[in-house]
Automatic annotation (TrEMBL):
Keyword Phosphoprotein: no
InterPro entries assigned: GP_PDE_dom, PLC-like_Pdiesterase_TIM-brl
Calcium among keywords: no
Domain GP-PDE residue range list: 13-266
Organism annotation: Streptomyces luteosporeus
Protein name (Swiss-Prot/TrEMBL): Hydrolase
SUPFAM superfamilies: PLC-like phosphodiesterases (SSF51695)
This protein's UniProt keywords: Hydrolase, Signal
A molecular-function term among this protein's GO annotations: hydrolase activity
Amino acid sequence: APAPGAAGRAPLPVAIGHRGVPSEAPENTLASIDRAAELGTEWVENDVQRTKDGALIVVHDTTLARTTDVEQRYPGRAPWKVADFTLAEIRTLDAGSWYDRRFAGERVPTLAGYLRQVDHNRQKLLLEVKAPELYPGIERQLTAELDRAGWLDGDHVADRLVVQSFDAASLKTLHALRPDIKKGFLGAPQAADLRSYAAFADQINPDHTKVTAQWVRDVHALKGPHGRPLEVCAWTVDDGDDAVALARLGVDGIISNTAHTIAEALADE
Ligand code: G3P
Ligand code: CA
């Protein structure tokens, strides 16, 4: 839920660390969420996919080429799809050197390890199921893994977890399995279509360029599956003035590569 604002003014949008804090540390790594925690960022966003042997891991692209040294390590295995590598192979990759030598040896996190670290840091998680069409059955697997890690107990599921996706069908599957998990649809449906999303989504999370004050009012006018008004978390905004403008449009959250600086800009406004 959004942080309460100062008395007499609308609540400030929550600043959510997109892939951790990629302006300071390699995206979607434990180093990135640790740095975000040091900078005071409570909510972090990540991306979850599945390895060839069925392990859930945290990585954004559907190939490993951009954010690891896989091309050097496995030159014959282009295009280096996440789904074509085992967990053991992926865990040997360097997910930090491409960003900065200071992060050499950083690994692609398992979801289980990532969840432990988010808990350790007392952070909250906006977990994106990335490209679920590539990973049939990932929704059931995800709920089992969240459950095993203690993330479906009362406190976590009520206050510390939202699962989001661009794929409405995947969110509906997840909703049928675990209606208690809050869900976010990534996109900006037209006002007339919003009601159908409110059946399974608690948030509608649009590209920030699509947001208008009227659209935010239309979203807020609907109640989600948990009986509360739908929320809006817009992405991806790194400029303080843009964040302030979005706050004035009424959004509840802003997903940012520099969430700590956005939070400052919002607080100063
Ligand atoms: O959280 C919203 C945003 O992460 C969606 O886009 O490509 O960064 O996963 P992408
Ligand atoms: Ca994402």
